[in-house]
Each structure stands twice: as C-alpha cells, then as structure tokens.
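Quick one: ABC transporter domain-containing protein from Youngiibacter fragilis 232.1, structure tokens please.
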Amino acid sequence: MEVIRVNNILKSYGKCDVLKGISLYVRKGRIVGLLGPNGSGKSTLLKIISGLVIPDAGDVEINKLSLRTDLNRIMESVGVLIEEPGIYEYMNAMGNMNVSSMLHGKNDKQKSRKLLNRFELDPDSKVKAAKYSTGMKQRLGICMAMVHDPEILILDEPTNGLDADGIVLLRNTLKRFKEDGNTVVIATHLLSEAKELCDDIVLNNTGVILEEFSYRNNEGSEMEIHSINLSGLDQRLFEENLAQISTYRYWLSSERLEVLIAESELGKLVLKLNERGMELESSQFSKISLEEFYLRKVSGVQ
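--- reply ---
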C-alpha cells in the first residue's frame, strides 16, 4: 500500500535546477532511504514532501491527499526533522516537548516523558536547550517529531551530531516504529546507515533518481547484488528467460547481468535458469557491494 507518491516534481533556485522531474512512491511499513552525495537534492525533496517548500511543478500525495490542497490535514499524521531541529533554546526538554505537542493539538505529557527517557534526555531537568550538545539537540528534535504519534516520519540526516550510543538508540527506535506499521523516509549520504536501516533505497544525484530498489525483502532478508558474466551466452535469450521466471530487480549491460537477490534465493534462480538450458558455472558469478554499485551509479559508470 502506498502512503507517499511524488509526481514529477520540479524545483529550481534561479538558474540552478535542483530537482528535475522526480517521481517515486513509498510503501507503508517500510524505511526508505534517499541516498546521494551532498548537494544531490535530497533535502529539497524532503522539504517538498513535508510541505515546507512549494515545488515549481508536480505534486505530492500522502495517504491519497494532495499537499497542495490538504496540507494541514496531512501534517497531523507526519513528523518532520529537516536540517537543524526547531528547538526553543530558552526552554528545557520538557518545555520543548509541550510546545511541539500543543502545536499538533495534543497534550500527552506521559508520551513526552517516555520519548525523552528513550533518547536518554531527562524530562525533569531544568537545563535549557541552549546548553545542549549538538547530539542532545538532535535527539530532542527527533523526540519532538514523534510526540504527536505520527504514521510517517521524515528525517533529514538524522544521525548528524549523534555519538555511537545515540545512533544505536535512533536505529532501534525507528525499527520499532516501523514494526508498528509506520513509515520512515530518511535522507542520508552515509552508505553504512542506509545498509543498517533501510528496506528500500533511492539513489539520487544532481536532481534525478538514478535507481530505486528494495534492499530488504518483506521477510527482512538483506538483498545482495550478484553479477553474472554472460560472455559466450545468448544475452537476449538469457534476459527473456530471466524475465519469465523472476521478479527480481536486474540490470543488463553488454556482457554482464546484475541481479538484486537474497543469498538464499540465488541457488533457486540458477536452478530455474539451468532447467531452461541457460547453463551457468560458479566461475561466472561475483558479488558487488552496495558501495561499489552506488559509486558507479553516482559517477555514471555502467
């Protein structure tokens, strides 16, 4: 089930085209990572999805409602942390949570206390947020984004400023949030975070989407990219057979086929291909890391 649909979004600042016709969809109950280098348009896209920036063209639908006509209604179910947290520095943690909660029409102090404790922030502390470290401010910002029990979280570089313990806390919280049937969209330039957290990955650069694929299947198994050397094989026939027996994402080049597949499923796929006369040897297979795949796509190398 789709919860977010982005339809042909265009955005420019002056002569700089930041987003060039972006379209994508996000499924319910998944953690989706927008992965790309700095300046690739990730933050701008998240701002548009969050209703903070108006696109030059295109539309965003959340739960089948258009941001152009139903923004206030949509944001009741969306939590947002874009760039620096919108913290009131003259207030303590609980004061910030109370304001954020009231802005969403809520007043659940127990919820606020629970979130602060989860992220190791003392709800009874009188220390003003101005005295917080960068990591503490980031943790408070995440708590504020979650205080109204949203169904969707939109987070821009959420690990910024977090130490190792804070990153683990964030990962565990987002995974529990997803397990409750909710949805997360994060922007990151860190491959390690995308691999650790994300079910689906969207590679983007220079305002366009390069690739979209599921990094984990519905059972939670991690997918891997396996390369098959097609030298000496009828490539057209090979692709026809693969398309008939497989729903896996794959990429075909002149002498190589790359398949995104769980390790446990690879043997079954090879068996099916062999049954169709496409004899494959183990020497024809190699594994490609997400890092290699990402760098190749971003650089434009096939």
